[in-house]
Amino acid sequence: MTAPCIITVAITGSLPTKADNPAVPITIAEQVESTQEAFEAGATLAHCHVRKDDGTPTSDPERFARLMEGLRKHCPGMIVQLSTGGRSGAGRERGGMLPLKPDMASLATGSVNFPTRVYDNSPDLVGWLAEDMLTYDAKPEVEAFDLSMIFKAVEMASADQIRGPLHVQFVMGVKNAMPVDRSTFEFYVSTLKRLAPDATWTGAGIGKDQITLNHWSLELGGHCRTGLEDNVRLDRRTLAPSNAALVQRVVDLCEQYDRRPASVAEARSLLSLPAAA
Hints:
The protein is an alpha/beta fold. The chain has one domain (3-270): TIM Barrel, CATH 3.20.20. Helices cover 35% and strands 19% of the residues. The protein is built from 8 helices and 14 strands. It has helices at residues 28-41, 61-74, 123-135, 147-158, 182-195, 210-220, 243-254, 264-270, and strands at 3-5, 7-10, 45-48, 50-51, 57-58, 79-82, 104-108, 112-113, 118-119, 139-144, 167-172, 200-205, 223-226, 259-261. Helix 1 runs parallel beside helix 2 (61-74), helix 1 packs parallel to helix 7 and helix 4 (147-158) runs parallel beside helix 5 (182-195). The relative contact order is 0.18.
């Protein structure tokens, strides 16, 4: 049988605007509709930020609650992963939505340079976010922007600070962070397998290299992330028409690598999450 691939759709993020692409969903209603379309196309995990109606990023727990309610209703069983990233808040404010008990939450295990700033994840903040994820039974997706973050995640899992088995996302292509490099990517994968043999992983490429990481991840047995958060263009000339179109692109790629989109039940089992209620 072909191996299932969990397709993550990162629906909005905090940077693309309607000026970048009119398809970028901003309001809660737009995000729910866009995610439902992506879910029906084959995505089984939604990586979620929220914004104010004017597009400004926020970590407002009430907005996260409304988004989760909509996704539970219109995307039954879909894995909901809330972002604790730094663009939408500062310090512990970034984990203010964790009491909502999402299936998963993102967790960067170290600091890294971004295009115009430092993405600051101090050891104290990382430890606090991880502790709250344990408290509220939200499985972390470790966002690894460089090699040290993989080692830190393994260390935290060994100390029972992170709920296992580990799930790691290798992020490549952010300006000033790790570039898209095949040898480095293969080293990431082999290092994670050596340190945490039961771990699962996803490849995430930014901008034009989103599709590059889709190809590499499918080839090497991992899972895929796509969506308008990471790439508002399908190529240099054509705007991506929707999150669903980017998900469909991954679905179409699967066959080339003897893969297929994971079902909701398969995705939850692969990530050691409870079955959908």
